[in-house]
Amino acid sequence: MQEKLPTFWKLLSESDQRMYRKIQEVLSQLSTKNKRNTKIDDFRELVDAIDIFENYDKESKWRRCLACGLVKFDGGIAVNTSQLSILALRCKTSINTSLKGMGYTIISGNSSESEEFLKEIPYISGNPSEMRQWTVRYLEETSYQYQHQYISPPEGIIPETPVYQALPMNQGQIEEIVQENSLINNWEDDYSNTNFDLITF
């Protein structure tokens, strides 16, 4: 089966492409192991990992956001499920269910959350067809406390330090996070002959 790549794959630098595939491969390995947390907790950890990857530098952040299909901002989150499903190895239904379980509610029309989203990816504001691929959600107040209760991120994806303390990060730091995972210590950087099947659960 031909490898499925995100729509904006070619916008990523070669190092970002390698990092994208490493995150994807770690998620593939983790999906086959016994999980200590619920699917919602697993997805929350995934969101944090993607957020770190996207924010290691601001200049090209928008490119990684488009490729990953996820943007976190103060008070909300924007998701392109078609793109995120490729990286997360989850179907759209699973993604939407997890977001709802995390306390994110879909908003409609103009809002402060939508404005914050467009600030992160200005490209979308001038591209209505792309804008329609995204849903913007805000975080319900009642879920804020629960958002900070999970304490067991999957090894090799995100550091023990909270995300807000970990940013900004450089490319070397991000690669080190993934390379420390025992599942991928011996992996080669050349993924040219590797195919990734979209896993749904």
Describe the structure.
- Helix 1 (14-31) packs parallel to helix 11 (171-179) and helix 2 packs across helix 5.
- The chain is built from 11 helices and 4 strands.
- It has one domain.
- The longest helix is centred in the first third of the chain and has 18 residues, at 14-31.
- It has a 4-stranded antiparallel β-sheet with strand order 1-2-4-3.
- The chain has 201 residues and is of the alpha+beta class.
- It has helices at 14-31, 39-54, 61-68, 81-88, 92-101, 112-120, 122-125, 128-131, 144-147, 163-166, 171-179, and strands at residues 70-73, 76-79, 104-106, 135-139.
- Strand 1 (70-73) and strand 2 (76-79) form a beta hairpin.
Brief rundown of the structure:
With 201 residues, the chain is of the alpha+beta class. It is built from eleven helices and four strands, in the order H-H-H-E-E-H-H-E-H-H-H-E-H-H-H. Residues 144-168 and 181-201 have low confidence and may be disordered.
Q: Topology, please?
A:
Layout: H1 14-31, H2 39-54, H3 61-68, E1 70-73, E2 76-79, H4 81-88, H5 92-101, E3 104-106, H6 112-120, H7 122-125, H8 128-131, E4 135-139, H9 144-147, H10 163-166, H11 171-179
